[in-house]
Amino acid sequence: MTWLGYARAQFLLSQQVYWKRIGIALTGTLVPLVLGGFMPFQLRHGPAVDGAPAGMYALTGFLAFALFFTVYTLVNAVTSRRDALVYKRLRAASLPDSAIFAGEGAAASLPGLIVAVLLIVFGLVALDAGAPANPLLLVVGLVLGVAMFALLAVGISGILPSADTSMWIVTPVMVLFMFCSGIYAPLSSLPGPLADAAVYLPMAPVVSIVRTAYLGADFAGHNAIMGLSGAGAPLGFAGQVQACIGPLCVTVAWAVIGLSLARKFFRWDPKRSGR
């Protein structure tokens, strides 16, 4: 069997396990879908945010937030299967390590991408939004974002002590990112030092890329992020890409950090107390 065949087999197996664990599946799909639909709908008649309709400003933020549930799903899957020695048995079957995690990452990423597509449809139907201004940049932002979150999830799982405690650690981080990554309010609304730091959190650059690509305006450049004049200014294709270079670089940097953490800390054996 080829590497792609191994990765595909792992992907299909992980998908089956994911949908059988109904609690994890519902949390990873319904929570971002409900939040991503309800809050923009409630804000649809609110005042414009940086020149964008409030509902669409929030919707584009939740498109990115839906991807972050990849971390929730994958951390739970990786720590659980590590603790149950599933990965050691898979390695004994000659599965390449990279194929195992490629399949796991793709399986965990799929629900978030599906939710993002459903939210785009919701925007078209319920919010009278037009089509994305820059579909190519939007796809790049979504795919790069979900890949970065998958790598971070594997890296973080190597540090977490067990599957039992992983969700208690990951969930507060998700809540923090929801309020500090510009999902439904500009980063400039945060206190000064926090606004400066939030730019470099993993979620914020993905939000900026997705929002800029969808709305066709500058929500990724320095002026837009810091609330200076020029925020939300309409841009052409080249201008949108140029504005997103910084956030794209930050996203790639976090992906590299996730890969480095995985290489350094991930172990195939369960963590033992006193070890």
TrEMBL record:
GO CC term, one of those recorded: membrane
Keyword Membrane among UniProt keywords: yes
Entry's Gene Ontology molecular function annotations: ABC-type transporter activity
Residues that span the membrane, as ranges: 21-43, 55-78, 99-124, 136-160, 167-187, 237-262
Protein topology in the membrane: Multi-pass membrane protein
Domain ABC-2 type transporter transmembrane per the UniProt entry, residue ranges: 27-213
Compartments it resides in: Membrane
Chief location of this protein within or outside the cell: membrane
Keyword line: Membrane, Transmembrane, Transmembrane helix
One Pfam family cited in the UniProt record for this chain: ABC2_membrane
Matching InterPro entries: ABC-2_transporter (IPR052902), ABC2_TM (IPR013525)
PANTHER family, per the entry: DOXORUBICIN RESISTANCE ABC TRANSPORTER PERMEASE PROTEIN DRRC-RELATED, TRANSPORT PERMEASE PROTEIN
Name under which the protein is recorded: ABC-2 type transport system permease protein
Organism, as annotated: Amycolatopsis saalfeldensis
Lineage: Bacteria, Bacillati, Actinomycetota, Actinomycetes, Pseudonocardiales
